[in-house]
Design brief:
The chain is built from eight helices and 33 strands. Strands 2, 6, 8, 9, 10, 12 and 13 form a seven-stranded mixed β-sheet that branches. The chain has a six-stranded antiparallel β-sheet with strand order 28-29-30-31-32-33, with helices on one face. Helix 1 packs across helix 2. With 440 residues, it is an alpha+beta fold.
Length: 440
């Protein structure tokens, strides 16, 4: 059997996963037109308003069979070319070119949006409230096409900007379950409707010409404008006299709360709190200074290397040996180099720098710099050296004594000079005359 080649006059119904049976369409149309319908045991009865009963040979009620087998007394076909479907479609069209509808469960008031968003946040000692919210109705288009067999309808959707609508978005926005807007629908002028219909025909055509370029799309059985609400506004989080804001924007039906991102910490979250000085941030970014008891941002705290406490940096100094913060009251002077050092850097009475001095060669750049500034030190041998963040700690010796010199790394000035016996443990600070004699 040979399949004939389609001509340009061939018209087809575009394919779509969004389908409903003829009965589902009739039931929806009847509900939209407020026509009473009752169902029982595979049979339905639809009441016909008196002015239209003449269309149905004077019948006030139409009997429909919902099963595969026609029930006794069934009077009307449910095919889309039947007088029943054509009558319903005509009533739906009314005097407008497109029936105004909206998703069934779409939020219609600002309160509905606010309640949903507010529930997502927790504000310690404060509250969340709207800084403004606007609901805007945007027109989507639903083009309904009766199938070739006339037993189902297929829907295609076009967004307010004329673009096609993904299957996921159509489902999320509720474009498949819509109800007529019977009172004061949003206004849309005829040119705008025609523009959307043209875009819809283009979307439908793309779906069929991609399979066969010689085909054309049948005219839609019904064109429905679905008014979808878009929400935009600002959430304000207030604690005491301070407020931070978070803008929001999205479809009213799918709008979800977004985390607040703090410009200070960069952290995002739904639980907000404030520091003692009024800065609002994610609650998990706020901690207490264990020295002052103040609630501050965690990023403003440092850990004391001596006690392990989290404290504000203002209560600490940086240890020149370890480079770590320690509370100022936990510094002590090294008995050997006389540097003020964190107690965390001590081994008994000596700082880690003095304990960990290592032998160096005479061409070590650091020693070359020191000797170049203080020529008298060239008389000493057997150099050992350690360095901290701010000083070099160097030690040398002769046959009878040892020398300790602490040199500022930036200026190469001698901060401390001391001598000790060959095997003695006590380092005697050099007098002024001794300093001159040793350094020159």
């Amino acid at each position: 059997m040979t399949t004939p080649t389609p001509t340009t006059s061939d018209q087809v119904v575009p394919d779509s996963i969004h389908r409903e049976s003829a009965w589902d369409f009739i039931r929806w149309a009847a509900a939209a037109l407020r026509l009473p319908v009752r169902e029982q045991n595979g049979t339905a009865w639809l009441e016909v308003p008196e002015p239209d009963q003449s269309i149905f040979d004077g019948q006030a009620e139409l009997q429909l069979s919902l099963g595969n087998t026609a029930s006794a007394g069934a009077t009307e076909s449910m095919q889309f070319d039947s007088r029943l479907c054509q009558w319903l479609i005509g009533r739906l069209r009314g005097t407008d070119s497109a029936l105004p509808t909206r998703p069934v469960n779409q939020p219609t008031a600002v309160k509905d949006i606010a309640d949903r968003l507010f529930a997502a946040y927790s504000v310690d000692g404060g509250n969340v409230h709207l800084g403004g919210c606007q609901l805007t109705d945007l027109p989507f288009l639903r083009l309904s096409f009766a199938s070739e067999a006339g037993d189902e309808v297929r829907h295609l959707f076009v967004a307010h900007d004329g673009s096609s609508v993904s299957d996921r978005l159509a489902k999320d926005l509720g474009l498949l379950q819509v109800e007529p807007i019977l009172k004061l629908p949003p206004r849309i002028d005829e040119p705008a409707v025609h523009s959307l219909v043209t875009a819809g025909r283009r979307v439908a055509a793309q779906s069929v010409t991609s399979r066969d370029p010689n085909t054309a799309v049948v005219e839609p059985t019904l064109v429905t404008v679905v008014w979808v609400k878009h929400a935009s506004g600002t959430l304000n989080f207030t604690i005491g006299e301070n407020t931070v804001s978070l803008p929001f924007s999205g479809w009213a039906k799918t709008l979800a709360a977004q985390p607040y991102t703090s410009p200070a910490s960069g952290a995002s979250g739904f639980h907000l709190a404030a520091t003692d000085d009024g800065r609002i941030d994610s609650a998990d970014q706020i901690d207490m200074c264990q020295q002052s008891g103040k609630r501050v941002l965690r990023q403003d705290l440092v850990r004391c290397a001596t006690t392990g406490k989290l404290v504000l940096e203002e209560f600490t100094d940086t240890c020149s040996v370890t480079g770590q913060h320690s509370l100022t009251e936990h510094f002590a002077e090294c008995e050997k180099c006389r540097q003020l050092v964190s107690k965390a850097a001590f081994e008994e009475s000596l700082c880690a720098a003095c304990v960990q001095m290592a032998k160096i060669k005479n061409d070590d750049p650091r020693l070359v710099w020191i000797l170049g500034e203080h020529a008298g030190l060239e008389r000493w041998r057997n150099w050992q050296l350690a360095e901290t963040k701010s000083v070099y700690v160097a030690q040398a010796s002769t046959w009878t004594k040892r020398l300790l010199v602490v040199v500022d790394k930036e200026t190469l000035a001698v901060d401390h000079l001391a001598t000790a016996g060959k095997f003695g443990s006590y380092w005697a600070p050099a007098s002024e005359s001794q300093r001159i004699e040793i350094l020159r």
